[in-house]
Design goal:
The protein is mainly α. 90% of the residues lie in helices and 0% in strands.
């Protein structure tokens, strides 16, 4: 009788584990997509800095602008790569 009670609880436990695992995977996908979106937003900010580059050249601060553009480009790429890796391969 105790054996039947244990066997009847096994499917409940495996169902709960599957549900928990699916929630974790969904959370990872959402976090990865958010990181990718933030990386894209950082690139847009870099384009805004690029827009003001001619004014910076007139002031003689082009090196600072180049450094900021490079840093934003690197940060955006890093966030995009981390987000893609966290999100995993796309589902078919």
């Amino acid at each position: 009788m105790a054996d039947n009670a244990l066997n009847s609880r096994e499917p409940e436990r495996s169902q709960q584990e599957r549900t928990l695992q699916e929630r974790r995977q969904q959370g990872r996908r959402e976090t990865g997509a958010s990181l990718m979106f933030i990386g894209l937003a950082v690139w847009v900010a870099g384009l805004l800095v690029l827009f003001f580059l001619p004014a910076g050249m007139k002031m003689g601060r082009e090196n600072m602008f180049f450094a900021v553009i490079a840093a934003l480009g690197f940060l955006g790429a890093l966030l995009m790569i981390l987000g893609y890796m966290m999100r995993g391969a796309p589902d078919p």
